[in-house]
Amino acid sequence: MKSRRIFIKQVGLSGLALGLLAYYPGVGLRNSSYSLGQLPRSEPELQGISSQYILAFVDAVRKSEQEFHSLIILRHGYVIAEGWWAPYSSEHRQQLYSLSKSFTGTAIGMAVDDGLLSIDDPVIKFYPDFLPNKISDHLSALKVRHLLSMSVGHSKDSILILEASPPGVPWEKTFLSLPVVYEPGSQFMYNSGASFMLSSIVKKVTGKTAHEYLKPRLYDPLDIVGATWTENFEGINMGASHLRMRTEDIAKFGQLYLQEGNWRGRQIISKKWVAEASSKEIENGKYDSSWGYGYGFQFWLNPPGGFRADGAFGQYSMVFPKLDTVVVITSESISTKDTMQLVWDNLLPGMKEGALPQNKSANDLLTQNLKGLAYDPPEMNAHSEIEKMISGKEFILDKNEFNVSSVTFLFADNTCVFVLKEQGKPDIHITNGIHHWIRKGNYKPTPHSLFSLRRIDFDSIVAASATWQNQKTLLMTWRFIETVHGDQITCIFNDDQIIIKFLFSVARLQGKTDDRPDITGRIKI
């Protein structure tokens, strides 16, 4: 099919041939910016969309107030636009949320290709030791395909129930104990617990975690490096979420599916699986929203056509076969409906069949704009008269749920170094730039360090800044740039006392308050 792409290196082509190549999508050209492990790059016009149109799309993103972190647009196998909103950058992993599910489904597909299971295998077949005393007809009828298509028959998503399993109880046992209320396959119910079960089945049939199983089969051929995937206490990848990788690696994944599982001449996953996974397996709505056009095997179907891997807060690998296009977005979008609508309305209509006249000035302006994308840190007052009084002083904190025993602030050279002591753990040092971001040396070492809640449950590099809201109130802003989210820490000083307040980035974007209680303390005597 002309809409599927295999990269073929071409040499010695004239300028005329270069222009003609855009009309023949079966041929790809690697320009001088291409290097091993990267996707090839091209000017947008050569691939049938104007730089001005993409500029207008980026402007629409800005006006939407949806907080994008990165963007890659692929056309005919080439990256035609890419950008990261500083302090986010290309070399850092992105948190995928439920976009992870499509990788879990891919692992199942590869296991099917390897002859290790069938999608029509009963789920109970894999867990003879975890079955309830009484197996209902619906549970008996539950197949792998129902896990894949989110048609298990549960009345609600099971993931929180699995995570709340009693200590030592396998999550699979909890899953199999839940009532299968409806006939499997009869209705759609988004169920992250089903994706966990798929990850568990991968380990059952391969002896490896999904992450380990994918490494030689997917990651290595696509030059995906540095990806990480959290495991539960059983050593099973979460399946539904918690995978992290770079934006370009997410783009490679989408391009692989666009190419029907073929990568540089090698069939990574069967065409049959790609076709099944990306086709409608079950109805899930009335075609009245971006989530109502059907669901495949761990992929959503798009209103304009094609399909997508889709994660919370706007993590996307969108595939449009008829347009020979992949769009990848990572973000902290509060309205993911609006984020997707930006693509449907402001980007896809600009895709043309053939090459367009080159426009150097517009392309230079697009490149400049994409390189200049940034979120500025809050900027109020650079200094306070109380800095000298509190700098280097240790504040002993009252008992708190984070087990933080004390904090210290060190002001020098246009920075504020925040030192946190947690009982029984090494001190954490976060250097905040006064009115600028600092990343170097800043690290959140564990999932729940630095006052973290559920949705910030990763280690991460921290981009940190600080500003004085008034003479007694210091605001520190932290972006955990290897996750979707961030935090704001407000420290109110009153003589020898301190009050620490929190504002999770989602609450900030939604205009809500944080549900973490304030922490109080006083200077150590």
List the helices and strands and how they pair.
Blueprint (H helix, E strand, L loop, with lengths): L14 H7 L29 H14 L2 E9 L2 E7 L9 E2 L4 H14 L23 H5 L2 H5 L10 H5 L7 H7 L14 H15 L3 H10 L8 E2 L13 E3 L1 H12 L3 E2 L2 E2 L3 H7 L22 E2 L5 E5 L3 E6 L4 E8 L3 H11 L13 H12 L15 H4 L3 E4 L6 E9 L2 E8 L5 E7 L8 E2 L15 E11 L2 E8 L5 E9 L2 E8 H6 L8 E5 L2
Summary?
The chain is of the alpha+beta class and 525 residues long. The protein has 15 helices and 21 strands.
For the structure shown, list the relevant keywords.
single chain, 525 residues, alpha+beta, Beta-lactamase, disordered N terminus
- Which class of secondary structure composition applies to the elements? alpha+beta
Backbone shape: globular
Low-pLDDT regions = 1-34
- Tell me the count of domains: 3
Count of DSSP-assigned helices = 15
Helix content: 25-40%
State the total count of DSSP E strands: 21
Major pleated sheet = 9 strands, mixed, barrel
Query: How big a fraction of the residues is strand?
Result: 15-25%
End-to-end Cα distance: 75 Å
What do the pLDDT scores average to? 92
The neighbouring-strand order within the major sheet is 12-13-14-15-17-18-19-20-21
The value of Rg in angstroms is 25 Å
